[in-house]
Amino acid sequence: MTTAALLSPRRRRLGRFATALCASLFIALGVADLVRVPMLAAEMAHLGYPAYLLTILGVAKILGGTAIFAFRGRSRVAEWAYAGMAFDLIGAALSHAAVRDDASRTAAPLGLLLLVAASWALRPEVSAELRAAAIKWSDLAWVKRLWQAPVKAVLGRVDNTRFGVTDSLYPGTAPHTATARVAPGPYYVPGSPLRSDLREDREGMKLTLRLRVIDQATQTPCPGALLDLWQCDANGLYSGFLAAGAEFPNAAHLLLDPGPSDDARFLRGRFHADGRGEVEFITIVPGWYPPRTPHIHVKVECESQTFVTQLFFPQDIIAEVQAQPPYDARPPGPVSNEYDLEIYRSKGAVGCWPAFTKTEDGLLAELTLRVPNQPAGSRARREARAEVVSPS
After folding, report:
1. pLDDT tens figures, 94-136
2. What is the mean pLDDT of the chain?
């Protein structure tokens, strides 16, 4: 597989656009320098540079713009072109600052410098090297402390104890109380495989997850409901987003490139509930990634309704699991249920805490999902579909 193939289509399109725009601007600016546009000539005089410098800069800009467009792979010519562009723009910003120009004239070349940096960083070969370097650096203890300090400062303001969430307690679910809606997060991938065993080759403590879907308004089952689950593995990695890694700094590129980076689909799957609204999945207990506590995402499609939530684990189970292989290859997760932001945003995540039982080969988790906001006439339609049985 080529390096370019490892990048998402969105990232490749963004890289091509940035490079084309950067090359076009530099070629246009180079032509303007060569023809001595009066405004540019006056600018040079204002900065104290001789007029012939425009000719030198014009030739350099045209050659640089042409080089980054023509040499799209990782080549020394393109690298020198980017270096020259950066030198030119930094010099222009410093020159404006030296003559005490206003901030807008100083900021203009710095804005173009950001475009040059984006064009360079989004080139497939460079992007792959930067990602590898980020993963290597993020594993250093002092680098982790740099990002963990501000994250912990923010999460320190989160207090889920007000909702009954502590290291040993979590909210019970009162009868007829709707399951809380919890954000889907950035790792959802549509079209997951239709299956009930999500594990593939992922190692971890086996988790049998039995869910029942009912309409909270009528307290009747939702036969044939489609449940879509996704979670990270024991190392905190999501399939489809392996390039993001499991450390907070690496995942930051999702802001610019939210699409999947690979075709892996482990620990993802959809399955239909039976005529009683019940469904069983086989998966593993998820690991952790900052700044979250271990959790499993669930999307429910019941007739015309779509409902998204997350499932959480008591802290004592999290501690016990993380002390066993393969989870113990990493230190315990830095965020507990008391400080998880999504639990806080959902006011304690009522109805998102399964009942756990130890089994011979892992854990059994059972939970009734009470889907809110079902239409008033949904019961008759469900009764007509009561014969729907989950696929084998």
Report:
1. 998 888 888 888 888 999 999 998 888 877 767 666 665 555 5
2. 83
Point out the domain boundary residue: 70, 95, 129. 129
Tokens for 392, please give them: 């084998």
The span from the CA of 129 to the CA of 139, in Å, is 16
Task: Based on the fold, state whether residues 72 and 185 are members of the same structural domain.
Answer: no
The pLDDT value recorded for residue 32 is 92
Structural domains of the chain, count: 2
pLDDT at 324: 94
392 occurs within a structural domain: no
Q: For residue 109, give the H/E element and its range.
A: helix 103-121
Task: Please count the other Cβ atoms lying within 10 Å of the Cβ belonging to residue 316.
Answer: 11
Using the predicted structure, report yes or no on whether residue 299 has a pLDDT greater than 50: yes
Please tell me whether residues 186 and 124 are part of one structural domain: no
